[in-house]
Amino acid sequence: MTQEPTSLLPIWARTPTTRRPKSRRHQLPIPSDAMEEARDHRLSSTAGRPFLSGFCAAALRRKPLGARASAAAAATGEGLVRQLGVLDLVLLGIGASIGAGIFVVTGTVARDAGPGVTISFVLAGAACVLNALCYAELASRLPAVVGGAYLYTYAAFNEITAFLVFTQLMVDYHIGAASIARSLASYFIEFLELIPLLKGQIPSWVGHGEEFFGGVVSINILAPVLLIILTAILCYGVKESSAVNTFMTTLKIIIVIVIVFAGVFEVDVSNWSPFMPNGFKSVVTGATVVFFAYVGFDAVANSAEEAKRPQRDLPIGILGSLIACVLLYVAVCLVITGMVPYTLLGEDAPLAEAFAAKGLKFITVLISIGAVAGLTTTLLVGLYVQSRLYFGLGRDGLLPSVFAEVHPTRHTPVQSQIWVGCVAAVMAGLFNVRMLSHILSVGTLTGYSVVSACVITLRWNDKGTSRRSLGTFMVVAFLIAVAASFALQFRQVYVDPPGFSCPGVPLVPIISVFFNMVLFAQLHEEAWYRFVILSLIAVGVYAGYGQYNAVPSSSEHSTIGYHGIPSEAA
């Protein structure tokens, strides 16, 4: 007797359909009516359960995406298109990072940390390198599916943890986009005011922001306009967006290198003493502030479905972009704090003011161009990442399916892209960025810590490892976690190893989590309130919507809506 294809539905609930061809390398996408039917069946089967037991059963679901399952992506003409090469991915990561840290945050942190702001960037960069090693392994193991930290958490832990990670990350991305858009608007106005005719003639509410109600509301007209333009570029196509990012990122790197070489000759080493005027604690606190400047490699992981050879190129893009950013940040911090005493650095445009103080007026013009290019790419990539995360959750059913719709000809998630652009535009046009900056980095630290834990969990659960009995593995219990980590040293080899493996597992992920938690402990009080309140809201949203609408986690349903991987990456 011929066996029917595997289905989530019982025999009596299946509708007559034409027989599909047997398994091929590229499967066709699951029709939307079949997905709806499966969802309706699951709703009816859990209708009689008590709410708490049904909630727990849904919350503990995992996404079974092994290396082979994720590589067996469907090939359709209506999904995301694989157009990004390894250079595009490296520049994507650099484009997301270089800009905010150099042109916005440097002066603010230097006022408290002094020249020790360099150490702040080194500490944040070191934590990110450890995290990047974990990201690189997971990106290589799950190379075909969009989602980044959300996807890895879904595969390693459970559904509700993945949703919590998404909400924490998304708030960071939304706030970061609004902050960078306002900074970009301010730099753009300063660039225009280099023209004598416009000097002092542009109202503050156009680009610099005009505050009302004690500074809680700050009107900025130009920032939303810039967000609308970048959103339109991203909706038009990933190839076009990548071309814009490549051009502006290359320009930005060249300008940063020129600035460093020009500033070296103006350095006064006496400005570096004292190096940490307010102590090491201010340096660590500064590291938590600048931490979000390294989130570029996060963007690389979220481009998995649009990379040509993801299993090989994603790890290169993640690590290559991060190392380049660390070197450039440290060089610029040393130069500007050596050129001008840290007490004289401005908060809004520290680089331009430092060179202006040395009489290098022509460099300030170059800095303005670099600032506009840098903040533009940071904002462009940030909006790109947000839309892909919304796209992943919409496809999994944790958010409305409208977020999962892909334009049939442009091959971009237009609805998701428009949504994130609108949210950022409202925030950038109305809110005081200085108040919002106090609650940054919570989502990034949370996501990075969970991703590091995912490496340990997925290696522990890998089917090819030996099953030695070591008792109950409790992540939250420190002593048992240490004992299990030693045992993991002898059982960390995959049956189907990824293209890149994080070295020193479990030591590197454990140090990564510890480093992240140290940074987390230094956050402002408002950030802790935000973490708790947002987590409660996320649980409520999941309880009311997500648990009932999530698409069943099966290999049949988890490979829909995106193009297949080339054989080299499979």
Automatic annotation (TrEMBL):
Gene3D superfamilies, A to Z: Amino acid/polyamine transporter I
Entry's localization field: Membrane
Topology versus the membrane: Multi-pass membrane protein
Transmembrane segments: 89-110, 117-138, 144-166, 212-236, 243-264, 284-304, 316-342, 362-385, 416-433, 439-458, 470-488, 500-520, 527-545
An annotated Gene Ontology molecular function: transmembrane transporter activity
Principal subcellular localization: membrane
Domain Cationic amino acid transporter C-terminal: residue ranges: 500-549
Top-level taxon of origin: Eukaryota
UniProt keyword list: Membrane, Transmembrane, Transmembrane helix
An annotated GO cellular component: membrane
Listed Basic residues bias regions: 17-27
Region (Disordered): 1-27
UniProt family annotation: Belongs to the amino acid-polyamine-organocation (APC) superfamily. Cationic amino acid transporter (CAT) (TC 2.A.3.3) family.
Protein name: Cationic amino acid transporter C-terminal domain-containing protein
Gene: LOC100285703
